[in-house]
Amino acid sequence: MKYKFIAFACATFWVTIKLAVADDALTLDEYFVAALKRSEVVAIQSELIRQAEERYHQANSTLLPTVNASASYTWQDPTPAGEFSTSISPNRQSLAKISATQPLFRGFREFAGLRQTKALLGAQNEDYLNARIQLFKDVAQNFFNILSIQQDLQNLEEEIKQNVERESELKDRARIGRSRSSETLSVQSTIGTLRAQVEQLRGQLQNAREAFTFLSGLTSSATLNDSESLPSSLAPLEEYLARLNLRPDIKAAQTRVNAAQENVSVARGAHWPSLDLNANRYLARTGNLKDVTWDVQLALTVPIYSGGLLQSKVNEALSQRTQAELSASQVTRQAEQEIRSLYQNIIFDQTQLQALEKATAAAKDNYAAQRREYRLGLVTNLDVLQALTAFQENQRALDRARYTAKLDYAKLQAATVERKIVLEAAGP
């Protein structure tokens, strides 16, 4: 735990220094490190690890002897005058002793309990790593959402600019009688619609920026740097599925199955006899045993009947083990489904990108051709506007698809534990 904290602090310090000495835009990884410092969820998981470590120490203490010191002073009702007392104890009794108890045998349940708490500590560590992965996914979602909206705004501003140029051209043509005034009004209507879309996107961008500040603790005006790239081709799906057992959520679930099995051993161990070694060292004592300064006792306890309590606890532990196995199976199936889904999404993203790149290039050429032919009187203004709209819509769809593909790939890297930044600061 100490090494994890030191490594995380070093990574956070490195990002802080880098931001302080240079006005560089935040990359996705730098954003994630800033969010780690801010996240209460990850911090809570860190505290849960500390609690699990203490429970392990508590379980380990059951194997060690316990030593206690005790002292007492007793006042006893004195014998009335003239009566004969048969008591062997004086009226004033003092006792001071040091007692030690060493468990010798408890049906091996103390060892099973130690293994159980150690397994639960391991599961808590995996939960911590899984919380980091979930945080990375949230950060990536917000990161690419902001970039996508910003790019969409740029595309809309460019479309407005082209329509304004179109409006100016139509006004000039209308003055010499080569264009109708209704054509100018049509362009003005389009410009108004586009500006309304701009305002809508600005509201969405503001919300996304607020989420950015919430996650990272940085100012909402921070610039983001899209340094992410898409692979030219994906590895076979089987290679990604082969990394399932590296996922912290699956490892945590499997470790909890082991802990549940150890809990069964703890419950069954209660059916066994218990053997303890007790020792007392008397520092002060009164009565006829005042000269006895120590004693040692070997105590054997054999459980015979407890109203079915012990067997009920065994049955409960068996049920909890079955529950843990079912949970592990569910987590594994969900993880496999997530990887398959993300993998297929990326394949569809790449296919869509290729189609949109061709469609955007064709739409751009078509718009240029429509403008030339309009000047020659071969097409109408409506044809030109439709060509411009088609070109800009394809361009916007292409940019959105590109950011969606990058987001899906970042999530796939996190889901298959390939994104090193997600786990490296947590390692020893």
Features:
Outer membrane efflux proteins (OEP), 4-stranded antiparallel sheet, 428 residues, elongated, alpha+beta, single chain, disordered N terminus, 4 strands
Describe this structure in words.
- The protein has 428 residues and is of the alpha+beta class.
- It has one domain: Up-down Bundle (Outer membrane efflux proteins (OEP)), CATH 1.20.1600.10.
- It is built from 10 helices and 4 strands; from the N terminus they run αααββααααββααα.
- The chain has a 4-stranded antiparallel beta sheet with strand order 1-2-3-4, with no helix packed on it.
- Helix 1 (2-21) crosses helix 2 (28-38), helix 4 runs antiparallel to helix 5 (181-216) and helix 4 (109-175) runs antiparallel to helix 9 (381-415).
- It is elongated and about 135 Å long.
- The termini are close together.
- Residues 1-22 have low confidence and may be disordered.
Layout of secondary structure:
Elements: H1 2-21, H2 28-38, H3 40-61, E1 66-75, E2 92-105, H4 109-175, H5 181-216, H6 237-241, H7 248-269, E3 274-285, E4 294-301, H8 309-375, H9 381-415, H10 420-424
Antiparallel strand pairs: 1-2, 2-3, 3-4
Helix pairs in contact: 1-2, 2-4, 3-4, 4-5, 4-7, 4-9, 7-8, 8-9
Strand content: 5-15%
Number of β-strand runs: 4
Q: Report, as a whole number of angstroms, the end-to-end distance.
A: 8 Å
Helix and strand content put the structural class at alpha+beta
Instruction: Tell me the Rg in angstroms.
Output: 37 Å
Q: How helical, in percent, are the residues?
A: 55-70%
**Domains counted in the coordinates: how many?**
1
Count of separate DSSP helical elements: 10
- Superfamily (CATH H level) name: Outer membrane efflux proteins (OEP)
At CATH level 3, the topology is Outer membrane efflux proteins (OEP)
CATH architecture classification: Up-down Bundle
Order of helices and strands: HHHEEHHHHEEHHH
Unreliable residue stretches: 1-22
Largest sheet: 4 strands, antiparallel
Q: Major sheet: order of its strands?
A: 1-2-3-4
At the first level of CATH, what is the class? Mainly Alpha
Mean pLDDT: 86
| Molecular shape | elongated
